[in-house]
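As a warm-up, study this chain.
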Amino acid sequence: MSSAELYLSFNEIMFYFTRAAAGGGVPFGLAEDFGHAAIWIAASGFDPSGMTASALKELESGQSCLKATLTEGKKEILLTAKSGKKLSAIQAGAAVCDLISAQTKNPKNMKSIIAKKVDCPFLVCAALGAANYDGCELSWPATDDTPCRVLICEGGSWKSSWKGRKIPEVIDSVDVKIILVSYLHLTFLPYLK
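Now compare it with the structure written out below.
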């Protein structure tokens, strides 16, 4: 049995996805960020329902959490879940956006942020894209050990290292590395098309 496709406007996506997150126990501010990330995914030509449902299931089952700890090093910041669980991409995306925003106002020569054990890494990309943080490169390993890389470009657009229209699958949590491209010594990243 197949189901009919459902088309939603961006306003409807914002409404439904924000409410779903808030209903799942996500604080309303983070739920709104989640709604904006879902819009960015849809605007990129993908169905946001699969990965967003996965992130909410991880929270509901207690596999992931929203509580995070920051550890600041000389050139990087580590973001980890407080409880030893997976870090929810909902929290990771918002925290990375906040860290980058603080960095632009108070530069400390931070080169990268590493979010440890993130449940749905592409949602972190969506958070940065929705916030229009261009000049960020995100990377993580896929299930077949293929490195996934996404460069957030001007206006929330993005380029990826993988071929095709399917985002590589991640079975378990992965470390997501976010590099502020202004610190890269390359003019263009050759693997991005």
